[in-house]
Amino acid sequence: MRRPTFDLAVLRTFVTGVEFNSFAKAADCLGRSTSAVSAQLKKLEEQMGTPVLARSGRGLVLTPVGETLLSHARRLLELNDGIFLSLHESQTTGTVRFGVQEDFGEHFLSDILRRFVQAYPMVNLEVRIARNAELLSMVESTGLDLALTWDTERNSPLATRLGETPMHWIGARNTRLPTMMDDSPLPLILFDAPCVLRSAATQALDAANIPWRIALTSPSVAGIWAAVAAGLGLTLRTRIGLPGHLDIVSGLPPVPHLGYMIHSCTEAPTPATRELAALIKASLQEPAFNFAVSK
């Protein structure tokens, strides 16, 4: 049996006329003549095999079949319009400038970029991997559309806290903490100040009356991992991007969790920028990410 196919233009006329409570107004809104609208309604009722509208005084009301048709017609039009909008936006050109703190950049940036390019293949991405202070300055000067950073005392006006992760003392495999602390300050490998993890490390050690010294500073996370692996000292970081050859070190003072934020430079981002922000939020809420940062 050959099934009839609804004409979406006819359904749109039907829905618009019901919402305006006037098919004359619907004709004006859709740029059609009243006779064309009448012909569409006649075609719809012939296709349905039963009236969808009935007269009530000087007006028209929906029949029971018309009420059911209206509900289905709205869903069909919403689906049609959503598909069109999605395909249209996927052909949007332009540039999205995204800044990310280095820990996140190493951990999940490639997956985010892959998903974004699938949704917006014509949009160029400019990615900046940097530390918090630089990223926040670029957001404030509109040099970046979005930035993913640690949660610090300095935040932008359009910032959203996405979550938090524990900080850990990290050292080379088989690090023996008592030997390292014997009659000498604890050697630390950290970023230059200002750094939220550096401050957390030194404050925790000071509160526990544990002497420390800065054995090495590095401008990059990769440099910190290399120095820790060489046995030059300990660092304080999260599990995000933690190399498999390094270990969590126990026996040192506890430190608080560290939050992470997403920042926007405008209250009215482009559709592509909104999509990137949504992908970032979704990735940070995935079970695999939460397991990796909290185990």
From TrEMBL:
Residues 6-63 form the HTH lysR-type domain. InterPro entries: LTTR, LysR_HTH_N, LysR_subst-bd, WH-like_DNA-bd_sf, WH_DNA-bd_sf. Keywords: DNA-binding, Transcription, Transcription regulation. Pfam families: HTH_1, LysR_substrate. It comes from the Bacteria. Belongs to the LysR transcriptional regulatory family. This is LysR substrate-binding domain-containing protein. It comes from Pseudomonas bubulae. The lineage of its organism: Bacteria, Pseudomonadati, Pseudomonadota, Gammaproteobacteria, Pseudomonadales.
